[in-house]
Amino acid sequence: xxxxxxxxxxxxxxxxxxxxxxxxxxxxxxxxxxxxxxxxxxxxxxxxxxxxxxxxxxxxxxxxxxxxxxxxxxxxxxxxxxxxxxxxxxxxxxxxxxxxxxxxxxxxxxxxxxxxxxxxxxxxxxxxxxxxxxxxxxxxxxxxxxxxxxxxxxxxxxxxxxxxxxxxxxxxxxxxxxxxxxxxxxxxxxxxxxxxxxxxxxxxxxxxxxxxxxxxxxxxxxxxxxxxxxxxxxxxxxxxxxxxxxxxxxxxxxxxxxxxxxxxxxxxxxxxxxxxxxxxxxxxxxxxxxxxxxxxxxxxxxxxxxxxxxxxxxxxxxxxxxxxxxxxxxxxxxxxxxxx
Length: 340
Prior knowledge:
By secondary structure, the protein is of the alpha/beta class. Strand 3, helix 1 (about 50-60) and strand 4 (about 65-75) form a beta-alpha-beta unit. The two termini are about 15 Å apart. Helices cover about 40% and strands about 15% of the residues. Helix 5 (about 160-175) runs parallel beside helix 7 and helix 8 packs antiparallel against helix 9 (about 295-325). It has 2 domains: about 5-255 and about 330-340, Spore Coat Polysaccharide Biosynthesis Protein SpsA, Chain A (Alpha-Beta Complex), CATH 3.90.550.10; about 255-325. The protein contains 9 helices and 10 strands. The protein has helices at about 50-60, 80-90, 105-115, 135-140, 160-175, 210-215, 240-250, 255-285, 295-325, and strands spanning about 5-10, 15-20, 35-40, 65-75, 95-100, 120-125, 150-155, 190, 220-225, 335-340.
């Protein structure tokens, strides 16, 4: 981990003093934060990485605690990996991890989180929409007794369709997490590293960091932070990918779709009894059954649709069980780089 030149004594949670490196004299800003790891998933962001590191370095060095930054290249098609190697060779506090192919943002985050050595982990995007200067405020909030703090954007700047899709994803996440703060989640997070112990054996192909965090704690918080305009390139999270991500979350970490299928079964069973009552009543009153192909076809189509929907949900869960039995890993590391 990187550190400064001077030394200060920081009071530890158990009352002992721990001598750590600090670039400035004075007291420790947080009583319970002794080291920080920043995890950044990287995908086709070679142009923005130098500026990101340039802004991140003074922020981390000002904290007065050991720190590191782990950049995980998620199968980028541009020069991102070579740029990570260049930056890491001149900074002892930087670690670069290159995945074998593109696995997804949360897969890359999981890789970086498992490689982190700090007591607190910070995650942020590689596009500079999450200002590194806000990390200090989030650490202050964490020190109030929380385990996870989200930096919720004051105003999202992705575009109307993307912002709407992001809200839908958060609603879906709320069902999967079962936490009130799910509507405030973002890629900008600060959490205690010990939380990863609850999911250390998770090896599914579709992880969700936010859901995995709920396996270890219920002490969540969120504070409003600035959300800047993307300086280079375009977002890789398109509307279809956000919808797919929401679907993966709800089927991968919740039984809600199966419950919806059961509820639909009960509702349409009642509907079927209603149709039966209509047929029998018409026959008893008018002496003739309900006539018409349209009526029969409509009822058949409705019931067939519900059956196929329910079977599709069951099939999705079976497919996920199949993938887990295949032991398909969430990521595979190709190589790592750091200052020699």
